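User:
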Amino acid sequence: MSDRRRKIEVYIRWMIRRDMPEVLAIESESFEHPWPEEDFIRCLRQQNCIGMVAEHDDRVVGYMIYDLCKTRIHVFNFAVASDYRRHNVGTQMLNKLIGKLSRERRTRIVLEVRESNLSAQHFFLTNQFRAISVLQGYYEDTDEDAYIMQYLHKSVSLSQSLVSPSEVDSILEQNNNPNFTPIQEWSLKNDLDGEDPWGLWDDLTE
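Assistant: Predicted structure:
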């Protein structure tokens, strides 16, 4: 795209089977160690795991995979096509998630970012996430550390901002990783409830 700073409006909807080729293409260009299709399928078959895409001019230009936990939204995967970055696509996707937070129920969004992924860290920091902990050797492919980054609903005070031990356990279970270091103050500054519009991705493998 030309005019790299121009903001565009995207339509954010459920991810469906025909989106997978475009999703996998974005995944491949975005990450040194991309998810294979099998990882998307396995994740999306979980009851509360949701896939959504951002669409512009009939093209998938971004996607996010996240889990609706009892008190938080846990983002597993988040990417924007390279030629659509810096056009407000990622921010619109985040705003979709932020709109699902409330004082009474889910009050935070959490995600992990590779230590080396400075562009992702900067993006989330500019969207009011903060780093709250380090998962040492979290990524099996490189033994790289991960930062847990968190966005808080406006009703949550900073004194409540650290992830609980049970939340850390649930994150570590995904990678069998026992290494966790909290960060007290680090300078890096329509709820779907498991509904699946087309059967937990069962037809994806047909």
